[in-house]
Amino acid sequence: MLTKEQPSPTLLEQAPKTISGAEATLLALLEEGVDTIFGYPGGAIIPIYDALYDFKEQLNHVLVRHEQGGIHAAQGYARSSGRVGVVFATSGPGATNLVTGLADAQIDSTPLVCITGQVFAHLLGTDAFQETDIINITTPVTKWNYQVTDASEIPEALAKAFYIARSGRPGPVLIDITKNAQQQKFEFPGYTPCSHIRSYRPKPIVRPEYITQAAALINQAQRPFVLWGQGVILGAAEKEFQAFIEKSGIPSAWTILGDSAIPNDHPLNVGMLGMHGNYGPNVLTNECDVLIAIGMRFDDRVTGRLDKYAKQAQIIHLDIDPTEIGKNVAVTVPVWGDCKETLPLLTELVEAKTHDEWLGRFRDYLAQEVEAVIQEELFPTSEELTMGEIVQQLNELTGGEAIIVTDVGQHQMVACRYANFKKTRSNITSGGLGTMGFALPAAIGAKFGAPERPVVAIIGDGGFQMTIQELGTIMQTGVDVKIMIFNNQFLGMVRQWQELFNDRRYSFVNIASPDYVMVASGYGIAGQRVSERVDLRPAIQRMLEHPGSFLLEVMVTKENNIFPMVPQGCSVAEIRLR
Amino acid sequence: MSQQPIDRQEYNITAYTENQVGLLNRIAIIFSRRKINIESLNVSPSEIEGIHRFNIVIHETEEVVAKLAGQIEKQVEVLKVYYNTNDDVIWQEMALYKVPTDIIAEKALVERLLRENGARAVVIRKDYTVFETTGHREETDNLIKVLQPFGLIEFVRSARIAIIKGSEGFNRKLREFERTEPSPEVAENEYLNSRDKVFTM
């Protein structure tokens, strides 16, 4: 018998609960399946951190050392796991420190939800302490952003944020919550995930006529060539992609963000595109008759000079974002859609073929590249160590199982060129924005996103010093990240350009380093420095076998250049081997 | 200065959007990021309650306009974007002119000029009179020239508003947008649709 004094337990659950905006925020995260948050507290986000105190068991909060480190860590998490990365930061400087990471995530299509605290709603626009107009500051670098000034908006705002961040072409979303909204108690109606916004179409219904046209073009092609990008990975379409190229027998090359979608030793994987990509894929872009671009956006670092790019070819472009189709390169057949859906339709219609002679041309060019560049880079006869041989040793010792996170510059190009990946989501790097300082925090996040996989950060001596403070995050969390510094005592990529294009006028590219091993030791992280070939392999072995994080600094030859190279303003066919 | 391509002309961009704080900025930066000047911008209600209508005028090539329209439509809170040349729309701008009343009253010529230019007095005071005209740019511009010799005190012109000649309005489209599973029509992209003509085998 139910009485007023003893209401039914189910009725109690159904009755609307009165909770704070801060609690509603955390409940929303739990409903979205969030397990890890990268953040840094501050005055305007204290109510959310106060609520977090009671959610410590369900939500793992990683305290970073700088908000930029926090957002790069969330990017690493998203890239290694395929889930939405979550960041907390306070108002003012906390929020503005996210801007570089937002820009990076926007251009590299990384799903993030960033939650920033904001001053009380009644203080907006008064230059209050730590007030900054973060909505307007971040508008160009977010897929969507929204300011919450009333707690009752929180469940819907966060539901939309997660839906927008991960659907369609993913991207970063920022939700700015004023302090009063975090504190305010309201009747929580429960959380409903978002699955439809009337003004937002994440992906289209695939038009069969374009699939038919694309297949017809592919079937009559003599020298078809596939370029793929990160869209294959973001769409979780690696299997569909592999099935497509295997049936059609088409040689395929990748942009650096597309790397690792299929193994590097796959017989149809002909290598890397772009400025420092492989010789064959660049030269033969201007000789193929049908170019099939899948989930890539013809970035200028990939195309070189546009008016001399693949002019002879019919171009098929598969992309989920219609504004990318025809943006840089005129397209013969647009295939607008999610490649997870379009690729199987295309595979069904293409004829099973091999293109042995055409594929052989890629091998011929590779042989030339090996002779001119790769052999000496990976197995040097010179006394000093090369970046390439370190990556080669790492390949052998990890068996291609590791996630490699790179920063920006020469070491990045070497790692992307020579890393031998076996699994998807193994290559994490800042592609579009080229953000130095990305690698160390991104590697921390990548490890949280894929704890079962070894994570190796490869960083130059310049980039490492940009976010070196995140060693503190490693120390405090005990996360297992292997850090390799390729130290050439220069800002190497700029130095290379100054050597090649500015008469060796080395303007401010000499960069001094602290004793990194000692710095690491100050953070309780084991380390070693090597400069002799004989020590290299044992040191990498030691690093990989070490329980917990390890820093390995490798002194490499100072003035090595990355080749091949498509100089800026040149066509891909004008790629230089030396 | 580089020479401007000759195929640049005025385009009228019409965007149907949600009524959301910050959306104006999100749309404006699509132009300013590319250093494209907005010639005229008007935001108003549309035929549907709660849906706003942006009218934007720019002077550009069709290729650029098509890309800009795509970028605008990509914004989460934008439902649909159209772009049209001046021939495809009915458009109007409104202008106000403030002139000293004594001159108007004294000179019969002025009254005739105002009449010829379709101007209408909105306010008549002892010291000044405000006239209004509505029309195309040349018409509102012309009256400035006419009134200048008679001591034009103040002039202001509104943004352009434009109705698309071939449009059936947005009501039916909106119903499609509101469906969780949109029909192919809604999922289509006008810029890609025109590709039919491009493809040849």
UniProtKB/TrEMBL annotation, chain A:
It catalyses: 2 pyruvate + H(+) = (2S)-2-acetolactate + CO2. The lineage of its organism: Bacteria, Pseudomonadati, Bacteroidota, Cytophagia, Cytophagales. One of its GO terms (molecular function) is acetolactate synthase activity. Gene3D superfamilies: 3.40.50.970, TPP-binding domain. Pfam families: TPP_enzyme_C (PF02775), TPP_enzyme_M (PF00205), TPP_enzyme_N (PF02776). One of its GO terms (biological process) is L-valine biosynthetic process. The keyword Amino-acid biosynthesis applies. This is Acetolactate synthase. It comes from Hymenobacter crusticola. Residues 407-554 form the Thiamine pyrophosphate enzyme TPP-binding domain.
From TrEMBL, chain B:
One of its GO terms (molecular function) is acetolactate synthase regulator activity. Pfam families: ACT_AHAS_ss, ALS_ss_C. CDD domains: ACT_AHAS (cd04878). Pathway: Amino-acid biosynthesis; L-valine biosynthesis; L-valine from pyruvate: step 1/4; Amino-acid biosynthesis; L-isoleucine biosynthesis; L-isoleucine from 2-oxobutanoate: step 1/4. GO terms for cellular component: cytosol. The keyword Amino-acid biosynthesis applies. InterPro entries: Acetalactate_synth_ssu (IPR004789), Acetolactate_synth/TF_NikR_C (IPR027271), Acetolactate_synth_ssu_C (IPR019455), ACT-like_dom_sf (IPR045865), ACT_dom (IPR002912), AHAS_ACT (IPR039557), AHAS_small-like_ACT (IPR054480). GO terms for biological process: isoleucine biosynthetic process; L-valine biosynthetic process. Residues 12-86 form the ACT domain. Its EC number is 2.2.1.6. It catalyses: 2 pyruvate + H(+) = (2S)-2-acetolactate + CO2. Keywords: Amino-acid biosynthesis, Branched-chain amino acid biosynthesis. Belongs to the acetolactate synthase small subunit family. Dimer of large and small chains. This is acetolactate synthase. It comes from Hymenobacter crusticola. The lineage of its organism: Bacteria, Pseudomonadati, Bacteroidota, Cytophagia, Cytophagales.
